[in-house]
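2024-03-11 09:14:02 INFO queue: dequeued item NTR domain-containing protein, len=186
2024-03-11 09:14:02 INFO validating residues
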Amino acid sequence: MELMKYGSLLVFVTACFGCDPSPKVQQDDFCYANFVFEAKITSRNIGELNIEYGFDVQAIYKGTADNIPSTLVGDGYFMSCGPQELKVNTFYLIFAKHQSGGAFQIVDYYNMANVKNTDIERITTKYDCDCIINIDDSLYGYVSGAPKIKPSKEACITPANFCPRSGFCRKNVEGACTWGNHGECY
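2024-03-11 09:14:37 INFO prediction written
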């Protein structure tokens, strides 16, 4: 009976704090992050709730070197979305943010072996954080029969089957946010 209580609690907590399966666009993570940089992971300390990483910055694409601390924190094995596990002596493109508790937290990361020059061009020249990106969830079956989102000058609506990594939203010459793609669709 006791095992059943713990099992029920685990299912409840997982349902409440589980990962969001909705589609997302890399630009949202870029705009949410305070820093985007390439780094070589130099050390790793695995804890119960998080993993601390030492790193050497190779290039900075958002933020300044003065404000990047020496330790980076990723989600650990007991987090509902799984661990943010980076390998020592490997290079990554890291999106990170200072959290209210003081931790320098990973928002997202990509192994540099999978990052192309067009990816760097896109994050440095195409992303416009003044534009809002709206994803019409009704296109993906998350909201049955929901009306489509109306376009506006301040926001882009992702097209059906958009490319989450190569897609971007930025203002055109008339000042309206428009959707575009730069690089391979993957």
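2024-03-11 09:14:37 INFO annotate: The first strand starts at residue 35 and ends at 46.
2024-03-11 09:14:38 INFO item closed
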